[in-house]
């Protein structure tokens, strides 16, 4: 936020240091005028001895000594107003009369906490036309509810009320300074200016420090006693700063204000960061179609311009990938990226040893492959769905299950599934594959959507769920990663088990195994491989709304959670690639790539 620079307002408190000497008072006004500061005022304490005390009060004789005639105060106020703002401290009705007589030359009024309940003063001030003049009320010694009461009253007669903390005690202990009140008052009176009036020993450095602390905490007004020479002061010299000290204080307050105003990020700050920031640099050469992960970059200072890591992530989160081939030690730019073409590729064959022609077996009257493709078409982030089968005549019948062209059709290698996938990817210019198998009639769009998001956030080559129900999910694979497998193995003999080629090679691929959120996780078996599976799906679909084009995870899991007898139909079955030890050993051996 860009705040207009205004240094704190400083009130030079004359108090009683003049000791009744008019000439000394004039010299103080002159000294005040010689302190160069753009936001200041000088304050006089105006009272009559009989208006402020009874003759039995110990200070009554001093009050008589300090009292000036109204004509003297008129001259002093006029002189002060020529070199800054003139303020008056009101203690009695006499002071209120002087205020009324000189109102045109007075910028502000101060009331001590000891006179806030004085109804004579209240009555007199109610007759004053405050206009834009400021009214400081000192609230030291008042509880918060009493401060509210005082503020409510005085803000009814003056528009610009300032709350002041700090009481006159010589010396005031550092522990009694009261800075802790500032945030409390800010919270209780939002938008109301605060003033600090400390009375620390002027011979100690704390006297020059505490006003700066107060400004840092949020005070916009500072009141400070001053004198010409502390050693010569008869009264009120203890906490009074001499002119050179006042100059030093004003300089410190000006610096404190300058240091706390301006734009949230300054131009100098921007320039420093621009020159010194470490930006992401390619750790190694990368290829078109790659995603950038933390493992792909190093951070260095460089004369190159480039994106920061957050900007790279923002671009990839929009499902962009590299269009260019950044070299090692190169920075990244927006032009290096393009939108990814994402496609679901559903592998399907008519051959099946355990459940003959299962792709065409009806589930409540609809072929299982159609059930699968309907679910895939409902995934919002993909650009196309491809039904990929072999180029054998027996599989050509699947062309009739493309929903009148809503699903693309591809025929390729019968047994090398990776080769078949890459043929489809080349033909349809696909960058990122959602790999599913058509023997999973209930692929859940929410799970695929979540995996896609995590794939691009991570900058992965391969993403899969750790904890999805069997048959509800797929795998996200970059096409450039598929090509890397093909280039290494030539013919991928076991590519029906494509998962192993990636998860067995974490030193070659950026593997992202994702923990799904709880609402997407169940332990049901939802793949079609045995007659029991078909029976389970028929029972499940009979309870789903079959007029809908696809079914959400919430719908499917709600039915299965409410009807546990359905999942028991096939719950005893296992997956061969998870239980066949010979197969697992073979896959682990034959799909492993040499360590880099």
TrEMBL record:
Domain PseI/NeuA/B-like residues, every copy: 133-259
According to UniProt, the name of this protein is N-acetylneuraminate synthase family protein
The source organism is Castellaniella denitrificans
Taxonomic lineage of the native organism: Bacteria, Pseudomonadati, Pseudomonadota, Betaproteobacteria, Burkholderiales
């Amino acid at each position: 936020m860009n705040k207009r620079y205004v240094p704190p307002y400083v009130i030079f408190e004359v108090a009683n240091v003049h000791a009744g000497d008019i000439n000394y008072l004039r010299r103080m006004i002159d000294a005040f005028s010689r302190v160069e500061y753009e936001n200041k005022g000088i304050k006089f304490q105006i009272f009559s001895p009989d208006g402020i005390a009874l003759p039995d009060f110990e200070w009554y004789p001093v009050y008589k000594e300090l009292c000036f005639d109204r004509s003297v105060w008129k001259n002093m106020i006029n002189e002060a107003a020529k070199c800054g703002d003139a303020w008056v401290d009101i203690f009695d009705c006499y002071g209120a009369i002087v205020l009324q007589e000189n109102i045109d030359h007075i910028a502000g009024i101060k009331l001590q906490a000891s006179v806030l309940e004085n109804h004579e003063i209240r009555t007199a001030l109610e007759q004053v036309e405050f206009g834009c003049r400021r009214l400081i009320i000192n609230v030291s010694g008042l509880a918060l509810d009493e401060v509210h009461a005082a503020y409510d009253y005085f803000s009814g007669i003056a528009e610009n009320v300032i709350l002041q903390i700090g009481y006159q005690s010589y010396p005031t202990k550092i522990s009694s300074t009261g800075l802790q009140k500032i945030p409390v008052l800010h919270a209780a009176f939002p938008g109301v200016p605060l003033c600090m009036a400390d009375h620390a020993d002027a011979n100690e450095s704390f006297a020059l420090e505490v006003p700066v602390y107060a400004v840092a905490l949020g005070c916009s007004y500072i009141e400070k006693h001053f004198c010409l020479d502390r050693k010569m002061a008869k009264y009120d010299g203890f906490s009074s700063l001499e002119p050179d000290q006042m100059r030093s204080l004003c300089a410190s307050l000006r610096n404190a204000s300058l240091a706390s105003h301006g734009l949230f990020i300054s131009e100098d700050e921007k320039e420093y960061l621009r020159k010194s920031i470490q930006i992401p640099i390619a750790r190694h050469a990368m290829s078109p179609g790659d995603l950038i992960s933390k493992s792909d970059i190093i951070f260095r200072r460089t004369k190159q311009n480039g994106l920061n890591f957050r900007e790279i992530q923002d671009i990839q989160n929009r499902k962009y990938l590299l269009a260019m081939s950044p070299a090692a030690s190169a920075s990244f730019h927006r032009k290096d990226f393009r939108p990814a073409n994402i496609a679901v590729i559903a592998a399907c064959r008519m051959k099946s040893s355990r459940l003959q022609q299962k792709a065409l077996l009806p589930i409540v009257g609809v072929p299982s492959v159609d059930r699968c493709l309907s679910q895939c078409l409902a995934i919002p982030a993909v650009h196309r769905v491809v039904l990929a089968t072999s180029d054998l005549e027996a599989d050509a019948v699947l062309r009739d299950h493309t929903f009148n062209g809503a699903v693309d059709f591809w025929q390729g290698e019968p047994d090398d599934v990776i080769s078949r996938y890459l043929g489809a990817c080349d033909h349809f210019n696909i960058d990122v594959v959602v790999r599913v198998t058509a023997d999973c009639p209930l692929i859940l769009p929410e799970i695929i959507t979540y995996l896609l998001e995590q794939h691009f956030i991570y900058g992965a080559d391969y993403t899969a769920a750790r904890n999805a129900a069997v048959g509800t999910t797929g795998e996200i694979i970059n096409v450039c990663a598929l090509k890397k497998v093909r280039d290494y193995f030539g013919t991928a003999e076991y590519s029906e088990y494509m998962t192993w080629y990636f998860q067995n090679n974490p030193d070659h691929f950026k593997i992202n195994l994702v923990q799904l959120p709880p609402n997407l996780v169940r332990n049901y078996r939802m793949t079609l491989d045995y007659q029991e599976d078909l029976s389970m799906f028929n029972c499940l679909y009979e309870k789903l709304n079959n007029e809908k084009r696809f079914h959400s995870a919430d719908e499917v899991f709600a039915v299965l959670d409410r009807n546990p007898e359905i999942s028991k139909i096939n719950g005893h079955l296992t997956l061969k690639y998870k239980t066949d030890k010979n197969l697992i050993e073979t896959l682990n051996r034959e799909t492993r790539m040499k360590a880099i």
